[in-house]
Amino acid sequence: MASAEIAAEHERILREIESTDTNCIGPTLRSVYDGQEHGLFMDKLEGRIRNHDREIEKMCNHHFQGFVDSITELLKVRGEAQKLKGQVTETNQKLQSDGKELLKSMDELRQCRLQQRNIATTIDKLTHCLPVLEMYSRLQEQMRAKRYYPALCTLEQLEQSCLPRAGGYRFCAIMAENIPVLRTHIRDVSMSDLKDFLESIRKHSDKIGETAMKQAQVQSSRDSDITHQQRTGSGKRLRREVGSGTMVESSGGSPNSEQDSGILDVEDEEDDEVPGAHDLVDFSPVYRCLHIYTVLGSRDTFESYYRKQRRKQARLVLQPHSNMHETLEGYRRYFNQIVGFFVVEDHILHTTQGLVNRAYVEELWEVALSKTIAALRTHSSYCTDPDLILDLKNLIVLFADTLQGYGFPVNQLFDMLLEMRDQYGEILLKKWNLSFRQIIDQDNYSPIPVSTEEEYRRISGQFPFQDPELEKMSFPKKLPFSEFVPKVYSQLKEFIYACLKYSEDLHLSSTEIDDMIRKSTNLLLTRTLSHCLQYAIKKKNVGLAELVQIIINTTHLEMSCHYLEEFISNITNVPPDGVNATKLYGTSTFKDARHSAEEEIYTNLNLKIDQFLQLADYDWMAAQGGGQASDYLSDLIAFLCSTFSVFTHLPGKVAQTACMSACKHLSTSLLQLLLEADVRQVSMGALQQFNVDVKECERFARAGPVPGFQGDTLLLAFIDLRQLLDLFTQWDWSTYLADYGRPTCKYLRVNPHTALALLEKISRAMKDTSRKNNMFAQFRKNERDKQKLIDTVVKQLRNLIAAHQS
Question: Where is this chain compositionally biased, Polar residues type (predicted)?
Answer without folding.
Answer: 247-260
